[in-house]
Design brief:
Layout: E1 6-10, E2 31-32, E3 35-36, H1 37-47, E4 52-57, H2 62-67, H3 72-80, H4 84-93, E5 100-104, H5 111-116, H6 119-122, E6 127-130, E7 134-137, H7 142-150, E8 158-164, E9 174-182, E10 185-193, E11 204-212, H8 215-222, H9 233-240, E12 246-250, E13 254-257, H10 261-273, H11 279-291
Parallel strand pairs: 1-4, 1-6, 4-5, 8-12
Antiparallel strand pairs: 2-3, 6-11, 7-13, 8-11, 9-10, 10-12
The structure holds 1-O-phosphono-alpha-D-glucopyranose (G1P).
Length: 293
């Protein structure tokens, strides 16, 4: 497969599940410990060698653009005060000039439509897609594992991250059918977006990390609305399985669905526990909290 140089981050969602926190602030800027959700996901992409970050934004998301730019006054102040560690932190997180693009999804027509909005910026090459609601805690990251797995697959292969969940939760996700194994990956025999439990082909759900071929854009341009009245990426991927090889990868690591409050809270605890500066103190606090219930 051609090297994966570009990644799409769809960040146009309204974040209604986190109101009032997300009334004036994009949900992607909610912190998991001390890094915004979107920063964690961008970190995962950059660690995997992705060079160009493409954000599909919407109205009221300008703060995300600011976050991936210099904060000149802050930098001057930190420098005057000799705050070297903080300055280095900001410098490390700053993507190189010219490697970040923003485009707007003008109406909330669904994930498939958001991805399609990035077609001109992606061009004719395979790309990564990372949904910022999902965090995967692992080194190497989920998208790096997928890029690695893709090396032993056909040049026109598509690959999506999947994981097992309890059967009674599948109707909130895209669900895949499982075919023959190919190394660490397996062939996908079918996909369905948010099926009823009885109609789900398995308990393997689509986790929110994708490597897709650019042919998906042609399909998306013709795609009509599906589940929930939205243009669904899953429906376009179903059509792509008829043209190109399509694989699932059960990745290493734990995922957190930060689109739900419980997933978001659990991610905060899990990421803080891994931190040398916070883990021990939090570990000491947790039993006190739990003992009280
Ligand atoms: C989207 C996808 C779904 C996937 C999920 C992962 O759904 O459409 O296939 O399983 O992300 O979080 P959404 O959560 O945007 O409804």
């Amino acid at each position: 497969m051609t090297a994966i140089r570009k990644a799409i981050f769809p960040v146009a969602g309204l974040g209604t599940r986190f109101l009032p926190a997300t009334k004036a602030m994009p949900k992607e800027m909610l912190p998991v410990v001390d890094r915004p959700l979107i920063q964690h996901v961008v970190d995962e992409a950059r660690e995997a060698g992705i060079e160009h970050l493409i954000f599909v934004t919407g109205r009221n998301k300008a703060v995300i653009e600011d976050h991936f730019d210099r904060q000149f006054e802050l930098e001057v102040t930190l420098s005057e005060r000799g705050k070297k560690t903080e300055l280095e932190l900001l410098e490390d997180d700053l993507p190189p000039a010219g490697t970040v693009s923003f485009t707007r999804q003008q109406s909330p027509l669904g994930l498939g439509h958001a991805v399609w909005c990035a077609r001109e910026l992606v061009g004719n090459e395979p790309f990564a897609l990372l949904l910022p609601d999902v965090l995967v805690q692992n080194k190497p990251g989920c998208i790096a594992q997928m890029i690695d797995a893709a090396k032993s697959l056909e040049p026109d292969a598509n690959i999506i991250a999947v994981e097992e969940i309890p059967m009674d939760k599948v109707s909130s996700y895209g669900v895949v059918g499982v075919g023959k194994s190919r190394g660490k990956a397996f062939e996908i025999t079918g996909m369905v977006e948010k099926p009823k439990q009885a109609e789900a082909p398995s308990n393997l759900i689509i986790t929110g990390r994708y490597i897709l071929q650019p042919q998906i854009f042609d399909i998306l341009s013709r795609q009509s609305a599906g589940t929930g009245g939205e243009i669904q990426l899953t429906d376009a991927m179903i059509e792509l399985t008829r043209q190109q090889p399509f694989y699932g990868l059960k990745f290493e690591g734990r995922s957190f669905d930060c689109g739900s409050k419980i997933g978001f809270l659990t991610a905060n605890v899990a990421y803080a526990l891994e931190r040398a500066d916070l883990g021990p103190a939090l570990r000491a606090e947790l039993p006190k909290l739990l003992g009280r219930t």
